[in-house]
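The passage that follows is intended for readers who have already worked through the single-chain material. We present the inputs for a multi-component assembly, then the predicted structure in tokenized form, and finally a short commentary. You are encouraged to pause after the input and sketch how you expect the pieces to fit together before reading on.
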Amino acid sequence: MQKTEKNALSLLLNGIIFENPVFVLVLGTCPTLAVTSSVKGALGMGIAALAVLVCSNTVVSLLHKLIPDEVRIPCYIIIIAAFVTVVQMIMQAFMPELYALLGVYLALITVNCIILGRAEMFAGKNGIIESALDGLGMGLGFTLALTLMGTVREVFGNGSFLGMPIGVLQNYKISFLVSPPGGFFVFGALIAIVTALTNGAVNGKRRLTCKACPMSKMCGASGEGITEEDKNGAI
Amino acid sequence: MELFKSLTVILLGSILINNYVLSRFLGICPFLGVSKKTDQAVGMGVSVIFVMFLATAVTWPIQTYVLSEFGLEYLETVVFILVIATLVQLAEITMKKYMPTLHKSLGVYLPLITTNCAILGVTINNISDGYNFIESIVNSLGAGLGFLLAMVLFSSVRSKMEGTNVPKALKGLPVTLFAASIISLAFVGFSGIVDNLWG
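Having made your guess, compare it with the prediction:
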């Protein structure tokens, strides 16, 4: 019993800290940059992705023995798309404001590399409980990272937090931070800070390569045009 | 003439102002991953234009004449991603058989495109912005051209950056993101131009 608890905790922490999908694995960059101009959008996106991730990981780990290996990626995508649709419908019904704020990015959770990546790398090989916990950890890590970015951008860029104005900062807004270029800038700065704080300890993993991409096995042999150096080296 | 004017506004709008990469943040993975060399960037960009065009030409009629007709709009996401994945596979097989030279230069990038959020994004945006068929096609072409433009510009910047000496913590991804930020800032300068294009 003691052992399972320990394992569960390490699985959760793995997603939240050691393999944080945003800052360490650098997956799912599109929503990270797009919806973090406000804390509300960041939280909403994080929780929506968390829900999809837990559900899709669970179902994939239930079904992976039934799904033929050759068509597993399309099957995973359909499972994920189905859960995204469910989340979309729930949000449209109960949180229409957030639904409008997230817009197309909600539907784009379907092609978020984190979710397909975890289905391929974890849920397809592990049991149900581990997969659900892994989904929960990764989802929490994603939510925390997004909220951190959203906080930096909203507090300094708009002088407010969750829409509530912060007295002093209202006079010193840096509106660059809430604009699209500010998204790239804050993301770069946060990654640099994480690297500096950890003395580059996690830097080795932080690579945008073909290997890190969940699709790498699918396109695998067709990677002639991309050189060996690109496959292995950091960007 | 009116039609021409409105189409130019849509085209230039999606190339310059609402650039899919730099201001809507769609397709960031290939933007950061395949922009090391200019020829790769061009290959990826051209493949994206091709698939965007194809995907729009197929998904728009499906949405309008099948899903909306039978009140199945909620299936949009599931159907669109299936259609895109199938199309990419078909395009690759056809290209391999009938255009081997083109397949050699572009084929590599095709499988990578299935999960590129810019493709699904542009097809969904065409529907949610209420474009008709011609407007959708023009919008998807503009989005693709904007992607190509951003990729080529960025790959040139990165080749200049390669030999520079940056602080240890900024090496790799952070400095690349800063460069992307500056390019994106240049595109902010375009805002407002297209709206007043025709007075």
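Commentary: Chain A has eleven helices and two strands. The radius of gyration of chain A is 19 Å. How closely did your sketch match?
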